[in-house]
Amino acid sequence: MSMYTDPLSLNEHRLFQELKHSLPSNIKDTRNILEIRDNVLYVWNAKDFCVVTLNVAATYGKIGEDVPYQKLRLTDPPIFEIKNLLINETGTQLALWGSLGIVLVKLPKRWGKEGMFQGGKEEITCMVNKFDHFNATVEIRKARWHPGSTNDSHLLVLTSENTFRLYECELGSTPRLIKCWKVGRMPLGSPSKLPDFASLGDTAVDFDFATPTLRKPEMFAGKDINKNNAVDWNQIEWPILVLRGNGEVLIVRGNVLLDDHESPVVSGSLSMYPPADDNYGIDSCSIMCIQTTPPIVVIATCSGKIYHVILLKEESDDDNDDDRRTWSQYSSTYSLRIPDDALYVYECVEIELGLFFADNDEKYNCPIHLRCDKGNKSRYFCSHNAGIHMVSLPMVSQLEEFINTSEDNDDDRLPSLSNQSSSQYLICRRTKHTGVNEATSILGFGLLQEPCVLVALLHTGDIVARSVIDLHYFPQIEPPEPIINTEKKVNKEDFDVYIKKSLKRETSQPIIKIGSKSMSPRECLKLLYHATDIFRTEHFVRHDNVRKDISNKVLALKVMKSHLLKELGILMEAKKELQQTAERLAERYEDIKDEQEKLAQRAKEVLRLVNYKEPSITPIERAEAKELRKMEMKIEEIKIRLLELRKKLERQTEHIENDEHSEKRKEIVFKRDQEKTIKNTLGHMTKDIQTLIAEVKKLEEEVSI
Description:
Blueprint: H1 14-22, E1 34-37, E2 40-45, E3 50-55, E4 70-74, E5 84-87, E6 93-97, E7 102-106, E8 110-111, E9 116-117, E10 123-126, E11 128-130, E12 140-145, E13 154-159, E14 163-168, E15 176-182, E16 204-209, E17 213-214, E18 236-237, E19 240-244, E20 249-253, E21 265-267, E22 271-273, E23 284-290, E24 296-301, E25 305-313, H2 321-331, E26 341-350, E27 369-372, E28 379-384, E29 387-392, H3 394-404, E30 422-428, E31 442-448, E32 453-458, E33 463-467, H4 495-503, H5 521-613, H6 619-665, H7 672-703
Parallel strand pairs: 4-10, 22-26
Antiparallel strand pairs: 1-2, 2-3, 3-4, 5-6, 6-7, 7-11, 8-9, 12-13, 13-14, 14-15, 16-19, 17-18, 19-20, 20-21, 23-24, 24-25, 25-26, 27-28, 28-29, 29-30, 31-32, 32-33
């Protein structure tokens, strides 16, 4: 590819060349098996049954160089198809999930150069925890990490049975099912097949978490919730917005993280204003909530229309309260509770699902997957079979400006709809001339920050990297959270138990006993067709799936065996080196020990000689020596004072000589008062000199000089 579509030259990297040959050729649905977190790229390799990681930031400025990558080997690789890769916020666990199951991978720690896992080891074995609560008739629609989890270990899963399942996924332990509740009736159709757009109806297709709120706001009326310990953590709830295929949005309230008997409250479908005849589309496929105040909800449809909605409290009308209650009771298929919130649609953005379509051409429809930008709330991304879009939301900055203003009743600061949202078609994968059955899916994409670069994986295995220009983007640097390290025993389901569950069937073919009355050939043929159809639909399909699972398991075990043999060889070499090092250190230890004993003997001899030659003096002699030291100090002080006096005497002598010389040249006449003062001064100076001379003589006599 050109430098425009791949400025980082990722397609030339050995990782993506191997990944290109390992991707299946029959992928036709958009998925997300690629993720970027902290400039580290994670991608699932289905052929090698491992997660491959690469520090993309290390590739900057190293065009043409082979930057090393790492493989995270799973202790028990999944045998079902992986469609999504999801990392928690702390970067300690990675969830691999598809329609038929979920596995959790414990990520190793990072250190050393460029922050690689375990200092840069090429292949790392990672602990895997499997979910044992799913059967063959239940499919997974969506899985998200709960943002309100204190230890970032709660995973919320939406299944095809219109059921939520909350799991506590502590590090090193089997996921534990905490709560399970329904958000609608079970679909009438076969749960093993995904319903099409016309038959979605009350089936929940997606969900997301709204902005956290207080469970009982009346308890904190008049209190300052910004003070410490003013609000209990248990009083904070994260509302869940659930999207149905017919466009209805449910809301689930209650602190689901509390391990108690209180069930979450599922409220009926939220009212949407202004009302529409088609309820804003009957082919809704994805929902996303942007964490603003108030929350902005994004609802996408398969036809390419995206609705931007604000979640607000609905104003109650006393006159129409009875009508509203009746409408809510009969419109909802599951809950009779009247919701207190409503959705206010303020704009609709229609994105192009492909290019070069004329007005009279039949437009292409496909599911749209929404994804937010964690570093910038004012934009989000849409991935689908026709490519990738980026949508800018100027309403976010307007809401923040309106919330932060301190002026009241200022209509000029209300959010304006003049600045409408805009969409950019970043990557196009479908045109008018593309075949209907031709695969053009996006297998995943991630975002690199500073500068922002979008890295997308196409179904062909090619990598497309494109810079995302946003003049209003400012990166937010957040301190890393501590990584929890716990060691617990992991329990997993045996493979033979899994095979037995897969072969378990609801229907059976009985042995038919024919009576004496003969049957017509047509009836016999009909009975044979019926039995054949049962075997074909209930028996052979399951056996084919089990055979595929066994072959995948055998392939995974072979890959794991080769990896473990390689690891064993590395460990044996390391053991041999450690043994040689231990022997060398033992020899050095013996030499050092012998040398230390010799030095100890020499030190003892030195101490003995020192004690033998040490002079012994009495306490009286020590006192006299102390006095002598004091006298020596006094003598030094006196010498200094004598030196100063000599200098002073020399200056005075010189001054007297100068005065006498001056008197010879010029006679000085003093007044009587001046003469008297001079005589008194000279007399005092004479006495001082005599006193000093007497002291000097006395000191000389004391020190015997």
